[in-house]
Amino acid sequence: MKPASRHSFIVPVIIAVVIALWLLADGAQNRPASAHHDDKSADVKAKDADFSEARQLPPSKLVSEVSEVDVSGLPASLAGTSEPGGWAITDRFGNLIPTSELRQLFEYYLSALGEESLSQLVARIRLVLSALDEPARGQALDTLGRYLDYKLALSDLEAAYGEAGTSGPGEMERRMLEIQALRRTWLDADTAEAFFADEEAIDRFQLKKRSLSRDSSLTDEQREEALAEAEMALPEPVRRARQQTRKFARYEQVREAMANDPEALRAWRRQEFGEEAAQRLENLDAEQKDWNKRWQSYAKERDALKASGLAEPEREESLNQLREKYFSETERIRAKALDSIQ
Q: Which InterPro entries match (predicted)?
């Protein structure tokens, strides 16, 4: 399978999007009053109709039932993209090993709910899973069914919360624990861990961060130390991203402080980022300075042109010529966009 190109399934975003889709698809008769929206669009009503079959039967039934469903061509939102890869992992006995990539495969197709019915999307996933040999194929289908039932149960839980806000970390933690328990009700422990471990680690970190920010008994130094300790439990990619964000935020401060000493700034970049990354940053800084210089010259001539009293067609033609004078083809798009918000 090819790796995903346009769809990068960042887990928290995926969950928010898919939960919203499932909630929209939930039949109105099964929602509390707080979950209703009077201004439902025709789009949402269509999703309600698409999902009605899952309300009549558990979604897992769609996995076990073999039906004639048209799966030719991809939904519009998936056109030009590739399926997530790395999900077809088995042990030496041919048993399926659950991975986060398998969940990404499910979500890849489920993200098109509304464009296609749930039964169509399940048929698409079944077709992909058919590439597996037994016993992994049957185990993957069973996992899909249980995952779909979990998603439906999750939509009901979210609907029960309604629009009520959270009163504090205690309420947020309660809801987090309820969702974690729900996952382990529908999925076995290994699958729940593989599917949600990173997301749950991030949730715990966010709760801890919020709690620390509200703890007035801590000094700033104690708070930073506790936050750094909590950060160590984050998944490695997330931890690296946070470290890089802090590093680049500090770079902005240092760059401003050393604006008049380029050699000192160059040495600092090499020490902090390494030779290759430091050179890239230096090139970007040079490009930005060059852009700023050209933009200032352009803006001065543009303002004079706008004040010249030319008629609209002549003024626009002159502005286009002015942009061509100062900017490349791609830069002219940026310049025009900036002009539009002046």
A: Lipase_chaperone
